Amino acid sequence: MKKIHFFTLLFCMLFFLQSIAQSPEKKMRIPLKHGAHRVGKRTDADMQRWREYGLGQFIHWGVYAIPGGQWNGKTTHYAAEWFRTSGLITKEEYDNLYKQFNPAKFDAKKWAKQAKQMGAKYMIFTTKHHDGFCMWPSKYTDYTIANTPYKSDIVKELVDAYTAEGIDVYLYFSIIDWSHPGYQAGTAITNDDRLNWAGYTAISNEKDKAGYEIFKEFTRNQLIELLTNYPTVKGLWFDGSWDGVWMKEAAWVDALGTELRDMHPGLIIGSRFRADENGKRHEDTNGDLIDDYDQRFERNLPNSLAETKGFDWDCVMTIPENQWGYHRDWSLTYVKTPYDLIEMTVKANSLDGNFVINFGPDGDGNIRQEETDIAKSIGNWMSVNGDAVYGVQHSVLEKQDWGHSTAKGDITYLTVFNKPMNNLLKIKVPRSKEKDMIYVIESAMFKSTKKAAVVRDGGRDKSGSVYYDIVLPADIQKLSEPFVIEIKLKQVNKGEKAAYQQALT
Ligand code: FHN
Fold first, then answer.
1. Hey, which end of the chain has fewer CB within 10 Å, N or C?
2. Per-residue pLDDT for the chain (505 aa), expressed as one digit of tens each?
3. For residue 172, which atom of ligand 1 is closest to its CA?
């Protein structure tokens, strides 16, 4: 009897301990009114289309392109699109620059054709940056393109030209607006991961509070105006929403998001639009992604799938180190090469993200020669190897020293950035999760020449991992560009491996 009691007690204790061990996750979930409205990815066709873009173009263009980082013979090496705050120009001088904005060389169709040749599938355009200048004729402010000598609606010209080239358009919109009298800035950066911005200055007096209400309504009106004027756009790309006063408006911003989505079905909005009621950005208090994709990766890429947490994401990247708008002087900055940008593009896609390259046209409407040349080189490479980037996802291969791998259907793309000196490309294949099964490389083909590649057994390492050697052509060392090999991986019974190898060599 005592024994039975002992076992019953033991069983109850084990059950209790197990339930404590399992429960924290469930118990810790905090009810939120303005957190993520979905757990997991969006599964609709619009979001699937976004996921398959692979490569995009960002354009930062506004009145800051006129000084291009220089004024009265002095140069700032801070971001040119922040020139109003550079200390080299007075606020008054800056706020009157629009009276000279007359980009005679601007040709939206030419830009769109260049983007198409580069291989961009979507484009994000700065309708309004932090200075508040509107590149469309907004009826809610006079500080717009309509009051420049140029007069025409630049947003419309670009939306039409890019849409005609089959490139989806997204509208960048800055929440920060230095031109609006009611706008309040209230941020304090506490760390540099742009995730948690602790301090903010609450609006302290009634006049400012009333002014901010007017600013909120102005912002809402402009967003509705943009979606009404340009109904073909696919999404909104928000910036400056780290502002503490904006973050404090979680309920209002959340309702605005719902209103925008209701008026524009399928609308795509990233994680930079709003914070939850606890001031958490990107991920809400429970760790769920706020809105449709993760926008944390600005000028940096994740290094592993684990880092992406399984979210959809994109990375926006400058060509120089940190200039988004036009800066006349690139002499002190490292300028990324097409090779660098292709490597980043493939890396992003190998980790299930999109990669977006920024361009900063000058005050006349020219895309600078350096950027034009880079776009061309990337486009030439993409026209041959784009299959390794568009519509792909991460492959089953682990990251290896020669480069990055992506996959689509039954094809795995190996994009090789580091050529082996002995011309034998060693591929480590994963262990099969199925009992007695093993991965083999069924076939391999060079993407550019469509020639089959010889695959040899590459041995095993001490841990039992299996390798294959792909024999590269003798003249491969002369090639200055990354190259792609398509392979077909197959899981076979361990016993069948020998037969496969014979067929391949
Ligand atoms: O301050 C801006 C910057 O000028 C630029 O627009 C980038 C683009 O992602 N966003 C802000 C910095 O995060």
1. N
2. 445 455 555 555 555 445 444 454 555 899 999 999 999 999 999 999 999 999 999 999 999 999 999 999 999 989 999 999 999 999 999 999 999 999 999 999 999 999 999 999 999 999 999 999 999 999 999 999 999 999 999 999 999 999 999 999 999 999 999 999 999 887 544 433 333 444 455 677 888 889 999 999 999 999 999 999 999 999 999 999 988 889 989 999 999 999 999 999 999 999 999 999 999 999 999 999 999 999 999 999 999 999 999 999 999 999 999 999 999 999 999 999 999 999 999 999 999 999 999 999 999 999 999 999 999 999 999 999 999 999 999 999 999 999 999 999 999 999 999 999 999 999 999 888 888 888 899 999 999 999 999 999 999 888 878 899 999 999 999 999 999 999 999 998 887 765 565 555 4
3. 6
Substitution candidate for ligand 1 out of 298, 299, 313, 327 with most atoms within 8 A of CB: 298
Domains of the chain, residue spans: 45-388, 395-504
With 0-12 / 13-18 / 19 or more C-beta atoms within 10 angstroms meaning exposed / middle / buried, residue 495 is exposed
Distance CA 237, CA 173 (A): 6
Whether the CB of 83 sits within 6 Å of ligand 1: no
Q: Which of 86, 324, 326, 359 to mutate to test the pocket of ligand 1 (most atoms within 8 A of CB)?
A: 324
Which atom of ligand 1 lies nearest, measured to the CA of 81? 4
45-388 in CATH: which number? 3.20.20.80
Task: Tell me the three state secondary structure of residue 394.
Answer: strand
Distance 265 CA to ligand 1 centre (A): 27
Q: What are the backbone dihedrals phi and psi of residue 28, each rounded to the nearest 5 degrees, phi first? A: -75, -15
Tell me which residue of 249, 414, 306, 320 sits closest to 60, measured CA to CA.
320
Model-wide pTM > 0.90: yes
Closest-lying ligand 1 atom to the alpha carbon of residue 60: 6
Decide: 131 in ligand 1 pocket, CB within 6 A: no
Residue nearest to atom 6 of ligand 1 (CA): 324
Say if 45-388 and 395-504 have the same CATH topology: no
Please give the CATH number for the structural domain made up of 395-504: 2.60.40.1180
- Indicate if ligand 1 lies below 6 Å from the C-beta of 81: yes
**Whole-number Å distance between alpha carbons of 48 and 68:** 38
- Residue found by looking up tokens 């506490």 in the block: 190
Helix (H) or strand (E) holding 92: helix 91-95
Tokens in use for 334? 């490292």
Residue 474 contacts residue 448 (beta carbons within 8 Å): no
Distance 397 CA to ligand 1 centre (A): 34
The answer to whether the beta carbons of residues 413 and 405 sit under 8 Å apart is: yes
